[in-house]
């Protein structure tokens, strides 16, 4: 509401108050607005406006404003120049009426522009005076939104059904037959490892310590120990290893047989390997 | 203008023309309000001393047969669409969904081995079947609760429904392919253990000797598909 | 059932009892909706073949004297509070941003001269229009980018939106106040080349012969409202 009331109240004030009009250039929305305001002072139908008189008023206004204020936007000056030109052409007899636009036509075009701007302003005001949504009229304060209910439509084909059934039944019937393969440390593997490890040391060391590198995987600890123990017994029997144990379940210590002087181990290792 | 006269009879009170205006005001206020309004708030917009309660009651009577009703919620007044028109405010759409692998397997096992309990389905599948899987199948309407097995725990027995036959285009459950046909279709390998068998399915609704009927409590427990569905 | 019978006397047409129910449905739909509804959407909730237009006209007549009216905006139907009760509802009103005089004029020029370019707006106003003015109007949702004029520089063309019609309660652009006067005075067409001049404003979303669609770059360039908003 206020916007157009401001608009309404501005114009008569300017129109009736000549001195303030003279200085208040900033109040105008450009030269066309200024022209329109000046035209209103003629208090005639814009269709019958005297463009010549209007040009005089505009030029007088600009003259005043320049004396007092000096700071005029360029487009006011452009309009002033154009109006001065139009005025001169309107006053002087047309020399080459056939060439270009006549002064009469230029004046009519200006009058038409003014009428159009005035009409637009008038209708903008009428538009804003219409009942506006959220200002004058209201829509439903609590809309009831439409709920989306989704009904699933399940899809499955006979093929899905039968292939799923057949596959599942077959998996179950086969799983009874199959036995998972177990990982076992063979005696040969154990012996090879023991020979390599114990061959390097003359001191007593517990069996577990020799094998520590092989017992990282908990699932193979039992098979590593059992196979190594069996391989150790065999090597003792061959006279290549010595073992001693403090008591039942205490650590089993192993070392290379001491009284084998020189390098008998190599020879006997070769023998037993061959045997 | 004839229409307006007709309207006056409906809304207004001839003896008290102001009343029509007050009703209009209440109507507009209630319509535009973002929340239910109490009588005090409504009265504050009417001429001082207006007794707003009888006006609201009159408005409520006038709106009662219409598509919009004036209702009281929490001691406040608000306009609401008539409850019998609630269906208008829901948009129903059909979404196509695929059954999970587990659901299809379970469905097949129910079809071939019915009447079957959940434990038996698990036995055949070799994995535990979630409650959700059976619920989804009940929702499809393709399986149904048949009864209870006469066994410890009285487990529910499942079977297929007529909707199952109709969805899979079967004339009768006996038309489900047998082992030879499954082998012929390449779905079962030729070399299977001798004891591998596919049952001859039957969906005879009559309970078997080892079944007993469902109790009334089964419906309450929500084991059955929603009652509304059966009406469709 | 008694309610429905009573209903027929008030709302419905005695000769056609179904009509009352259809009016109730329309009432409920229009009431519940957050935005204007077109006749197609309304008809989709009524029995197939129902001629919804006369029903809406009847409803409009019935609501005309009440505090809530049925109005047509942008070719769609919506319930709104009666305009004469605006004073009553001002408390409820959302504080809307006041438009500057430049913005109001620009809006009017876009409305009456659309499709229109910024240069044409400036031509009519006799001053340069800041980018900000158009951004504010785009932000209100009342004007929109239509396309580009097939002319040197390919300037963007502006037009009004459905929200514009809805906000100002216009059923169609032809209902703009004073449009006939403008047309009669030959003032509608902007100063565009004579062969492009179309004497009647139109918000028909179909582009005119002298327009071409916006390119994908226009969205990226932030000609649309969102970017302007973030700058604030």
Question: Could you walk me through the main structural features you see in this protein, from its secondary elements to its overall organization?
Answer:
The complex is a heterotrimer, with 1 copy of chain A (275 residues) and 2 copies of chain B (232 residues). By secondary structure, chain A is mainly alpha-helical. Chain A has 11 helices and 4 strands; from the N terminus they run H-H-H-H-H-H-E-H-H-E-H-H-E-E-H. In chain A, helix 3 (30-41) packs across helix 6 (103-129) and helix 8 (187-198) packs across helix 10 (221-237). The model of chain A is unreliable at 1-23 and 261-275 (pLDDT under 50). Chain B folds into 2 domains: 8-83, Orthogonal Bundle (Arc Repressor Mutant, subunit A), CATH 1.10.10.10; 101-215, Winged helix-like DNA-binding domain superfamily/Winged helix DNA-binding domain (Arc Repressor Mutant, subunit A, Orthogonal Bundle). Helices cover 41% and strands 16% of the residues of chain B. Chain B contains 11 helices and 7 strands. In chain B, the strands form 2 sheets. In chain B, strands 4-6-5-7 form a 4-stranded antiparallel β-sheet. Chain B has a two-stranded antiparallel sheet with strand order 1-2. In chain B, strand 1 (68-73) and strand 2 (76-81) form a beta hairpin. Chain B is elongated. Residues 1-15 and 224-232 of chain B have low confidence and may be disordered. The chains are: A mainly alpha (275), B alpha+beta (232). Chains in contact: A-B, A-C, B-C. Strand 1 of chain A pairs parallel with strand 3 of chain B.
